[in-house]
Fold these 2 entries.
Entry 1:
Amino acid sequence: MFTRLSRLGRVIWYLRAKRKEELAGLQLDVTSDCNLRCKTCYFFKDGSHLADNMSIQDIEKLFQQYQDQHIYQAWLYGGEPTLREDIIDLAYRYFPVLTIISNGQIKVSSAYKKAKLHISLDGLEKENDYLRGKGSFQKIVSNYRGDRRAIFNVTITKMNLPTLDEVICYVKSLKTAGIEFQIYSKSSKPTKFDERLGLDEQDIATVRKTLSKYQYDLNVFMTKALLESLLTRRLESACKLNDYIYCYASDGNRKSCCTPGIVCEDCKMLPTHFIETVEKDNDLMTKLKFSLWM
Ligand code: SF4
Ligand code: SF4
């Protein structure tokens, strides 16, 4: 098994990595189950993205397969990955850089002290609880206040945009690792896209003005180049995600994207724009911030 990398070790590793294979990682939907039913979730709307769950033995085989290929990092998605602490425990032993994408309702044990936790938050209490369910905001805050492993992941919508500065200020007061953003994107089935939440041109200008202020703030994972990519760049060819990330559904089948259901031409998800920014612009600020946040 690999030894776990220190924070400094991660930064050095990331900045020195020359080939994309060195930065590649495994993404696994740990389970199809979830303890929330968010209004914008593609998973449970019609069940078309739900899959069976692999046995722990098959998951260990998968982890071993990627460890044998010298893959150092993994991202655990769901459903909700914290419902399966046994899989988190296994992944923590196999991958020196481990990121867990969670809805924050169950606290990840402090035993996994070097895991990076990306916790979904849809704004302040009123906006978050409208989409994620009553009480979910307070649960997130009580679980992760002061936890330096936690990064809050905010999907910007028309609903939370007016309070974006307040959200950033509030998250900073929680003394976690900070905050990151993506933008509500069109999904493949038009009925699932909520037009009331989508951004128009004026909203895009507001996002640009608001987030540009945080270019040099190391607790706000947004840079000028990344922001411009998210707001304006359309993918010119196939998404680069699959060059870096090997995505698996919970039944063990490969899938083309970590967040199926999004229309690629309108995709404003953070991972793909991060890859585009680093590849096309080789933007040092984006690279530096990302390496600090891993
Ligand atoms: S927490 Fe994630 S998987 Fe669960 S319902 Fe919400 S969006 Fe869907
Ligand atoms: S939805 Fe986005 S991240 Fe997924 S394959 Fe399409 S462009 Fe890439």
Entry 2:
Amino acid sequence: MIASQEDQDVLAVYFRPVSTVAYILSLGVVQEYRRVGIASLLLDSLIRQLTTPEAVHCKALFLHVLTSNSSAIRFYENRNFKLQAFLPYYYAINGQFRDGFSYVLYINGGHPPWGPTDYIKYGLGVLGRLDPCSWPSRLLHNARSVVPSIFTSLARGTMALGK
Ligand SMILES: CC(C)(COP(=O)(O)OP(=O)(O)OC[C@H]1O[C@@H](n2cnc3c(N)ncnc32)[C@H](O)[C@@H]1OP(=O)(O)O)[C@@H](O)C(=O)NCCC(=O)NCCS
């Protein structure tokens, strides 16, 4: 379930209501143990669990992060999370409003809502697969097999008349 208004765009509408999304509420490693792969290990384990056949309905993994948290942003971007939205004044920390980003990793065939350009690309892709370039050669091939049979029938008709 996608709870808040600003997160409604994480997943394309037609995935609802059967699909779910997973949310990372918090991920932290004690300062002196950072950069040795602990968060990567935890994230890999979570992703492994979310990509089992039992979790196939989970289509996205997402999170919020302060725009100023460059280490976390680098961490998630290096793990293929994509920037989903800029959220002005998303956090209230010690009475101060701070901006946030949401990041998302699509799994199990999930994808974001489509914009007009996606529909155009999809339409062109479908047309491309129909391979209109092969139509003239197919017509020619069919014509080649049809034309001799017409001549043969005509010739037979003429011969029959001449008899
Ligand atoms: C973000 C955080 C969880 C990463 O934990 P970690 O165990 O250090 O991460 P890893 O060791 O698995 O790092 C994996 C990769 O992330 C990137 N990364 C992590 N910290 C980074 C930093 N300070 N600067 C640049 N890249 C960083 C690197 O690409 C790193 O790979 P590398 O070390 O081979 O270059 C950790 O910095 C942390 O606890 N930060 C404070 C809490 C926090 O901000 N949590 C995220 C809130 S959404």
